[in-house]
From TrEMBL:
It comes from Ruminiclostridium herbifermentans. Pathway: Carbohydrate metabolism; pentose and glucuronate interconversion. Catalyzes the dehydration of D-mannonate. One of its GO terms (biological process) is D-glucuronate catabolic process. Its cofactor is Fe(2+); Mn(2+). This is Mannonate dehydratase. The keyword Manganese applies. The lineage of its organism: Bacteria, Bacillati, Bacillota, Clostridia, Eubacteriales. One of its GO terms (molecular function) is manganese ion binding. It is an enzyme of class 4 (lyase).
Amino acid sequence: MKMTFRWFGEKDDSVTLEQIRQIPGSPSIVGALYDVPVGDAWSLEKVQELKNTVEKAGLKLEVIESVNVHEDIKLGLPSRDKYIENYKESIRNLGKIGVKVICYNFMPVFDWLRTELAMKLEDGSEAMAYDDSIVQKLDPVKMVEDMATNSNGYVLPGWEPYRLKELKDTLEKYKDIDEEKLFENLKYFLENIIPVCEEVDVKMAIHPDDPPWSLFGLPRIVTNKENLNRLVKLVDSPYNGLTLCSGSLGSNPKNNIPELIRHFGSMGRIHFGHVRNLKFVSDKKFHESSHLSSDGSFDMFEIMKAYHDIGFEGYIRPDHGRMIWGEKARPGYGLYDRALGVAYLNGLWEAIDNMKKQ
């Protein structure tokens, strides 16, 4: 298991590489380019500059999150081919600098969604929360404005303004796209890029839909074991794999996370793990919590044990953390609670390792 830590770059992250290096275990960096519009190719010059910055701080860059997929590819429009060619160029350039895994998603229009970015918990910390009853009453355009207003001045990953400026038109285009059509468009995308991945030894790891059910009538397909099985068979290659996010899939209690880890891990299809906890309040209503099992609804020991049982040698990172100790940062992505998450997950791993040696 290789521990990692997501970083948004020198210009747009309250957390520094120097701070990350001081976290026990010196996790490697999960990075990306945030100044390249979705659909454009990532140049070798830019990705090399990112790698140089990370390595200068004494850290490694082997995972990218995310190279976002242009909406025309998801929609299956004739223009998708030029964007797929750009995506292939990005893969080749990332392979040249030693990147091993690219995390991406195929969620129409919206990435992850929360109805509250700073819910006050009993201990005084703040966490992101979701309430589906609120979503049912939301106007998507107003929701985008609220997300931007309440993000502490940071751009939220997957909520870049330039991607959502034509929201009404984009939603209209999806009226004829159902789950089957979205699967067809994903297959077309994978059939084009996976041969390049095999050529340059870069694995694709699709992120589950967050939350894993339809929003605003939009189709969502990366949601459960059945669909994940179908997904990895669309192009039957070890380079077509998963980012198994415990929080995203686990927000539907029907998804048994340790079972999913063992099932897809035994197939060699989990290339990246996002490990976090959340607390269920009621059906489709939850808030995020610390990584500690007793603070949420997940058994984090069993999740990490499942990774250990399959001999997982891929990448893992702590996911959304709370805002604690007065920190003001990008919601979900401050330093302190995620650093605690690294220490906790590493501690579980060490304990499980020692238990098996006895």
